[in-house]
Amino acid sequence: MVIQALLVLSPPEGCADIYKYEDSEGVLHFTDAPTDKRFVIFMRDIKKDRELRTRLKLSQNANPAEYEQIIKTCSEKYGVSAPLIKAVIHAESGYNPNAVSHKGASGLMQLMPGTAKSLKVSNSFNPRDNVEGGVKYLRFLLDTFRGDVSLALAAYNAGLNKVAKFGGIPPYAETRTYVDRVLSYMQSYQAN
Question: How confident is the model at residue 62 (pLDDT cuts 50, 70, 90)?
Fold first, then answer.
């Protein structure tokens, strides 16, 4: 019994975060792939946490202050916090308005062509249009998931259908890393 507890408390190198929740009967449930929002972080994977904080640096030519007024205006217009908007921009493009992903997403908030079209964003490389479209989409996702920022971010990354299909954050490493990264950036922006 003691050995089992030590194994749980001392995960081997390369393990994922461990989440837990206690049900109504007092039974503790643990997982590394939570599918229910009742799960909370129990043990953070230190290596992964360090990577989240250092992986994406700002674009060399990035000047976040250049977009401050656009972010403020969109934040007020759509009721989405400025730290969340900044965190998404930071994670998505590193504040590079000309960023293009290998999947075809573009601009500061990395809008996919279909999403940009549905949001009436005619030029994804125009910072004002891109941020407005991205924030409008974030507002929709936040409303859809009743203000649950983690689920909204998961849908922003993996798509609304994937979050609905899995009833929570999809079990994709990329999406889980993305959500953690954006939340970490958001906390940093809130502190400043």
Answer: confident
User: Catalytic site residue 92?
Assistant: yes
Considering the candidates 51, 92, 132, 174, report the single residue annotated as catalytic.
92
How does pLDDT run across 108-146, given as a tens digit for each residue? 999 999 999 999 999 999 999 999 999 999 999 999 999
The reply to whether 18 falls in a domain is yes
**Helix/strand/coil (H, E, C) string of 2-18?**
HHHHHHHHCCCCCCCCE
Domain match, 35 and 94 both: no
pLDDT of residue 102: 85
Range list of H helices, 79-172: 82-93, 113-118, 127-144, 149-158, 160-166
What's the pTM value of the predicted model, to 2 decimals? 0.70
Tell me which residue range forms the domain holding 154.
64-191
One domain, residues 27 and 100: no
Spatial separation of the C-alpha atoms in residues 140 and 151, rounded to whole Å: 12
